[in-house]
Specification:
The protein is mainly β and 249 residues long. It has strands at residues 88-96, 104-116, 119-126, 129-138, 141-148, 161-165, 173-174, 178-188, 191-204, 207-216, 220-230, 233-246.
Length: 249
């Protein structure tokens, strides 16, 4: 999830965030175009949380197909924000509030394309409406380089905002993610990960916006929750969780 958004079929709303990708959770590293001084990714993959009471665990059953081994977990990215050409991250989403009075659930693909060396085109397909933003990687820093709505839209001519640094630090904050809250183990459909949790709260009575983002280095945003309120009325309640991910070998 570097950055995710609120949109409906009539209007495109701003993706906040990785990522999902991005964010979106929203979303310096190595691989994927340009920049030196890269920090190598840790050897990690999603693993289930072990039972805290092994006596309550069911006894292992013999396999009926002893020659069949379980599929290995997909590899993480070589880039700190998961910006690799050809990367695909799939998110499950749930939308509610007065903007979605009947609710909405489904899946949203996020794709990454190297537009030119050091600049990546991140796209989101929500309700069949495909758009996204550009991210520039310079050394160990990542910057927003504008949004796009059609394939013909180029990157912005200048860096707009700092999105992420490699490695993250607990005092890091930005306009999209807010400020660091804590590190925690979190489980989403794609697996169990140690994530950096960021949160943001903006209030201009009677409007209130609250955002929570969980970011995993060398993967991206794995969970985003956003709640908008007008007085006591919830106008938007959106949740995105990473369901699967794939980085081209």
């Amino acid at each position: 999830i570097i950055s995710l958004s609120k949109r409906n079929s009539q209007q495109r709303l701003l993706f906040i965030s990785f990522f999902l990708i991005i964010g979106i959770s929203l979303l310096a590293g190595c691989g994927g175009g340009g920049g030196g001084g890269n920090i190598q990714p840790p050897l990690m993959s999603p693993t289930p949380i072990p039972s805290t009471n092994p006596d309550l665990s069911p006894s292992p059953q013999p396999s009926s197909s002893p020659d069949v081994s379980p599929s290995p977990s997909p590899r993480l990215s070589t880039d700190y924000m998961g910006l690799e050409d050809g990367a695909i991250l799939i998110y499950n989403y749930s939308l509610a509030g007065t903007r979605y009075p009947h609710g909405a659930r489904g899946t949203m693909p996020m794709t990454v394309e190297e537009y030119q060396p050091g600049i990546f085109k991140v796209g989101y397909d929500l309700f069949g409406d495909i758009d996204g933003h550009y991210i520039e990687k310079e050394g160990n820093s990542y910057y927003i380089r504008g949004d796009w709505e059609t394939d013909e839209d180029p990157p912005s001519s200048h860096r707009e905002k700092l999105l992420c640094i490699n490695p993250l630090t607990e005092d890091f904050e930005n306009d999209r993610w807010g400020s660091f809250e804590k590190k925690e183990i979190i489980t989403v459909p794609a697996g169990t990960f140690e994530a950096w949790k960021f949160s943001k709260r903006e209030e201009s009575a009677p409007e209130l916006e609250m955002l929570e983002i969980w970011f995993v280095p060398y993967l991206g945003e794995i969970k985003v929750i956003e709640i908008d309120k007008s007085g006591e009325t919830v106008t938007y309640n959106g949740e995105f969780e990473l369901a699967s991910y794939s980085f081209v070998p």
